[in-house]
Amino acid sequence: MRHIPVILLFFALGTALGQQTQPPVPASESAPKFDLDNLDRSVDPCVDFYKFACGGWMAKNPIPADQTRWGQFNELIERNMAVLRGILEKDAAPNAKRTAVQQKIGDEYASCMDEAQVNKLGAQPIEPMLERIAKIKSTNDVINTVAYLHGQGIRSLFRMSSMPDLHDAKMMIADVDQGGLGLPDRDYYLKDDAKSKETRAKYLAHVQKMLELSGMSAKDAESGAAKVMEIETALAKSSMARAERRDPKNLDHKMTDQELAGLAPNFHFAEYFSDMSEPSFASLNVSNPTFFKDVNELIASIPVEDWKTYLRWHVVRSTAPLLSEPFVNEDFAFERQYLNGQKEIQARWKRCVNLVDNDLGEALGEEYVNLTFGKQGKERTLEMVHNIEKAMAQDFQTVTWMSPATKQQAEEKLQAIANHIGYPEKWRDYSTVEIKRGDLLGDHLRATSFEVHRELNKIGKPVDRYEWEMTPPTVNAYYRSSMNDITFPAGILQPPFYDPAMDDPVNYGGIGAVIGHELTHGFDDQGSQFDKEGNLKSWWTPEDRAEFDKRTQCVSDEYAGFVAVDGVHLNGKLTLGENTADNGGVRIAYLALQDDLKSKPEAKKDGFTPDQRFFLGFAQIWCQNVTPENARVRALTDPHSPGQYRVNGVVSNMTEFQQAFGCKTGQPMVRENACHVW
């Protein structure tokens, strides 16, 4: 995944593998929807609108044992997974009439579901990689093995991919970036609070256990875990913080291949690139030069034996969910149970659906779209997108702090945004991916290797502006700064986000706010640094940029005051883009609704005015419960705020909300110094 262009609506942590199957749940039984029974009418909406809108839902919907967070969009994800399961179980049945696509997705699912075979193999599937690591004799061997593992999709030490040139968005270039950590973020290695120390101790024990499972003695695994922690801590110290990485200028370091070689001569990048079989190139982007300067020293100073243990750990860590039960259970115990508070591992069929969606997503997505999404759904969504784009253009003209010249540039960028709805115009070709029934890890590695080299083969070629970064069943949406486009997969274009049975105010509050959110990303602190073509280029006057920065600082300060869990505050800088998009997206969706109501006014419904139903529709897409552990992880790593603050943070800044519900000065949902960018 490229590091700058994709800005998501949601953030989801992955899942692991291993457990018995269960009968499919009919999609209709778990269909989420806008529902006034979700309200807690004992709460004053002007005191806590989120609890007013979602309190009833939260009380009735505790977090399932196999989840770390449960919300309306999680319900939709579960419904989609039931649909995907039906597709995969049909395609997994041997049938001479299966298409090539059906054979691939069906057989990988069957490989995954054959738990008895996976358990029988134990660690055998990773033995060839472990044997290669065991034969390492020199620093050159370390470098060659890193390249080999990267080619299999196993991340270690750093990351290598392709990306649009920041200054010529029509062309793809190579990119190398920091990486190589096993914990969720650099701060886990560097902070000295009691919880961070506890986590590091748990991590050491986890690494030791996994190394033992891979065949190391208890003594060697214990010392090996310490060496892994030492190397990863050094990498963490050299890594740029997440909040810093949000500024694309901090990641803009175009170099020649010779300059990179001079920056890290001990790593022998020319050999690495050759081993990766990449297209030749003379220049590339180095996202964090300091990181590679430090890696250069680490390669020379850390003994080869320690590098072997480090690489062994990352092979085991990356593949554990696809190995036998002991690996699966240990991976789950640390990654999901300890770090995120998940009580039970997901049913195997769910993990197998996720695997196929990750590995062969557009093949599975094509089957999903044929079953669930029609031309009419695409046309309805596109109509709403155009209405909200129109409202945003009108909003630009009312902004008092922007000069006419900057307003003109903003409108041109808005008009240039490309809209992708439902599914890609051209499906990805997986014909070269070999899927062997009964070879689970092999299937996954071949699919991942295909994706790695598909990305690398883009280097030096024109950007494909029609390529998608998500699969069609995904319940999410995104904006890409380098492409200046927005994408809404078919998976999200259904209740509770969009419901043809609901009135316009509710739908504008749901999918309308999502559309507005993605459009606003083009004009948040990050997206606003890219021009209409997707180049990292300022289109602001200095005075307008200063006014913009003043307003985004207000948003950053506001959200930094919110507490996620146990005294852990949100990171206002890390969440700034998403919070700006939430605030701007709801506002322009509201403006679009007002324009729509001029031609077809609506009366009160179920005791609520159209404006009130709009805000309720918005709030209910964010109804959720979350484990304290997961809330902590997200506060440190997630650029999105929790649902509570995505709702209350927005409405407390909007006079339109306060007028709709009759809120008075001094009440919590009336912010004294309201933030307003768009």
Task: Please give a structural write-up.
53% of the residues lie in helices and 8% in strands. The chain has a four-stranded mixed β-sheet with strand order 1-8-9-7, covered by helices on one side. It has a four-stranded mixed β-sheet with strand order 3-4-6-5. The chain has two domains: 45-83 and 359-426 and 466-661, Collagenase (Catalytic Domain); 127-322, Neutral endopeptidase , domain2 (Neutral endopeptidase, domain 2, Orthogonal Bundle), CATH 1.10.1380.10. It has 678 residues and is α+β, with helices and mostly antiparallel strands. The longest helix has 24 residues, at 375-398. It has 27 helices and twelve strands.
Quick structural overview:
53% of the residues lie in helices and 8% in strands. It has 678 residues and is of the alpha+beta class. It folds into two domains: 45-83 and 359-426 and 466-661, Collagenase (Catalytic Domain); 127-322, Orthogonal Bundle (Neutral endopeptidase, domain 2).
